[in-house]
Amino acid sequence: MIYKRIFGIVLDSIGTGEAHDAADFSDLGADTLGHIGAYFNGNLKLPNLQKLGLSNQRATPILGVPKVQQPLGYFGNMQEVSVGKDSMDGHWEMMQLPVKTKLSFFPNGFPADLLAKIAEFSGRKIIGNRPESGTKIIAELGEQQMKTGDLIIYTSGDSVLQIAAHEDIISVKELYRISEYARSLVNGPEYTVGRIIARPYVGADKDHFTRTANRHDFTLKPTGKTTLDYLQENGVTTIGIGKINDIFSSQGIDEGYHNESNMDGMDHLDHVMQQDFTGFCFTNLVDFDAMYGHRRNIKGDGEALMAFDQRLGRVLDQMHADDLLMITADHGNDPSYQGTDHTRELVPLLVYSPSMQAPTSLQTRSTFSDFGATIADNFQVQTNDCGTSFLNQLH
């Protein structure tokens, strides 16, 4: 069957167990969904995800989310082949552009020459400069930043350079301008960084600092064509919701929506579903990652999943017979795991249309690129040889 509209939803960081190469990333034992289920001890209620088959591809079902005898949708997992486990790596690979060259990362902080250029351009001193949790370093240095107007710069285990500043001290517009300049410094060849992240925050003191929805990711431009580019070139409508625009530097996207939260993102999705178009709508819901995973807030992560599941019911009710829904994730971020970084995990793959007759397993796909290959196949668009379409398995 050919579908008129495809809706892809990325539950940012909701992995489903250690990937085959987890040991290479020191992530053995990571299992975002499994550990959230264990924490809630049977009280993690995800009825819509459950009936789509969320636990069916797992050796051990998620506690509180048992396997179902006849899922409404096709179910499986996907294994990442990109060399990193950042959001950019995961999303690019989904769109048939796996990241094969390691990007620059800075476990000991950024080099002095790079920081000196940012300081000179901004006219501001730089503090921090180490791998750290964003909430922790803002709590530690935020009051100093308010007094001095300095820039808080920090990183993580991924290829990211994050710049934090209080919105009352450095306007969002200025922070973006500084971040754009930083982006221009790390596009290679000496330093090639995946994302520059502007991290505005508000609050009167360290006990009340809150990072705002004005976060903006200045991502390395795709190093080749993605599924989105191929679709757009062939007249297929492409819509990005959430940080999709940032991750792809707006390339290959006809229409974009900025999310204030997961629920705001679902509101945007509801809006798009009311439109008559032929194409692909790609949604990222980042709260699981930014608000809970990195903060190792397992309770909040589970509650956010249950809130999403409720909204998913509305999505299912709105779908037409020629619509296709594909739910996945871009990496893991086990909120019970050591540290505060992403975790190398398999990601779930749930595929549903009201027209499906007897869905079965899609097994574990060998690359996230199968996701994009299937979308391109549906719209009869020639892309590249990355990934294998599973369109002909959907009945």
Q: Quick gist of this model?
A:
Helices cover 31% and strands 19% of the residues.
CATH topology of the largest domain: Alkaline Phosphatase, subunit A
Proportion of helical residues: 25-40%
Tally the helices.
12
Topology as a string of helices (H) and strands (E): EHHEHHEHEEHEEEHEHEHEHHEEEH
The total domain count is: 2
Basic shape: globular
CATH superfamily of the largest domain: Alkaline Phosphatase, subunit A
Beta-strand content estimate: 15-25%
Q: How many E-type strands?
A: 14
Distance, first to last CA: 7 Å
* Named CATH architecture of the largest domain: 3-Layer(aba) Sandwich
EC number: 5.4.2.7
Subcellular location: Cytoplasm
Protein name: Phosphopentomutase
Main location: cytoplasm
List the SSEs and their pairings.
Blueprint: E1 5-11, H1 32-40, H2 47-52, E2 74-78, H3 87-94, H4 112-122, E3 126-131, H5 134-148, E4 151-155, E5 160-166, H6 172-185, E6 195-202, E7 210-211, E8 216-219, H7 227-233, E9 237-241, H8 244-247, E10 255-257, H9 262-273, E11 279-285, H10 287-293, H11 298-318, E12 323-328, E13 347-352, E14 361-365, H12 369-378
Parallel strand pairs: 1-11, 1-12, 2-14, 3-4, 5-6, 9-10, 9-11
Antiparallel strand pairs: 2-13, 4-5, 6-7, 6-8, 12-13
Helix pairs in contact: 1-11, 4-6, 9-11, 10-11
EC number: 5.4.2.7
Catalytic activity: alpha-D-ribose 1-phosphate = D-ribose 5-phosphate; 2-deoxy-alpha-D-ribose 1-phosphate = 2-deoxy-D-ribose 5-phosphate
Pathway: Carbohydrate degradation; 2-deoxy-D-ribose 1-phosphate degradation; D-glyceraldehyde 3-phosphate and acetaldehyde from 2-deoxy-alpha-D-ribose 1-phosphate: step 1/2
